[in-house]
């Protein structure tokens, strides 16, 4: 049976097409060599478990590596100190035997496992036995715990971390783990986000010994190229590996699950390994239900302040400066929704961005703009082609009629959102759009629409006078040149009372621009 792309569970190099993890493993390995304790804190389906299993294999010749997962423990285990300690001891020993970890002393392991049947085991007695395992081992012991956030809203887990910290602080006197690695979505260095007693919101720092983990786990274009090269050697599709890898990266920014999902769709369906195939796979991803997007919606419901911030960035173009002390920004970054770009924070990738636009817009499908567009749809698509001239014209008429008397604050906040709200039911099911992040700000937004293989570039901007408008025309012409398009659309939201509302066609820098003013 040949290899395949995998999005479910751990990726294994003998079964799945994978990126080369060696450079990451070397960097993590050097942290282990230095005896560091750290947290692998990354978003859902970001390759944490795959990396940890590869790391175990990478380290096992030199270290006795115990790789556990708290996901296998039921919530009842964390209900008391006794139940947690006995189950932890038993699971530690089961892993040691199942993985045939070399170097551990059989007597020390047996004494640790005996705690499973003890009725009075405590954290203190557990760590005494763990210290004995470390003392008698022929190799330095490395402890890796995956899915630690399964337990991070339990007090017994906080106490466990405190014991790990104390063992680390006194490891020159009392034998201890050489290195400890905890992995999960939530950063257990600071448990404020999950451990919230009703009477107070306080910071808990039971594991402040952890050093920063700065290894980039996203996939670069070169990473994706390497994976596709292996696939091409097996399948001989004739793809342009570098071009396809770059295009996949452009849509995903290297988010591991999204990269693998796009590749899987192309491999397992009649799609082709070229621009059209990638775009079709992206469209499929945007329209499917999967655990990643389900979790995204759940997190926004759990943290409404995250939803508010995302909408300000997406629809209002508000630049939000990156600040690690801003709790909402930290939540957005921790869940993988947003990332730092320069001095600001932006949505993590183009697929997330489009999915979020679609989600927020779908919640307003009762809006008159959405209803009007759905009613106009049959006029706006002729012989399978999107008539963008007419789309812009009809939107201009609708906006002027319904919202023309609103003040500038309303237009700045809602103008671009209303255009996307108008656009969505027209292209729904057939086309997609995305926002060019590099040009999105409070003054200007470029929307790229893909409809049945044809691209449409629409610039949305706030009117700031004739001179500014001319610069906008020139910017759009340059952008059209970059995308190898001869025609574009410029939609200006004008606050002037004496504005001339309507649509006209101009020529600028050898490009045709349909310009609308609302």
Question: Would you kindly provide a written description of the structure presented here, covering whatever features stand out?
Answer:
It is a single chain. By secondary structure, the protein is α/β, with parallel strands linked by helices. Helix 1 crosses helix 2. It is elongated, with a radius of gyration of 27 Å. The termini are far apart. 40% of the residues are buried.
Label this structure with key terms.
alpha/beta, elongated, Rossmann fold, 14 strands, 518 residues, 4 domains, four-stranded parallel β-sheet
Number of strands: 14
Sheet with most strands: strand arrangement:
9-10-11-12-14-13
The CATH architecture classification of the largest domain is 3-Layer(aba) Sandwich
Structural class: alpha/beta
Which overall shape is indicated by the principal axes computed on the Cα atoms?
elongated
End-to-end distance: 60 Å
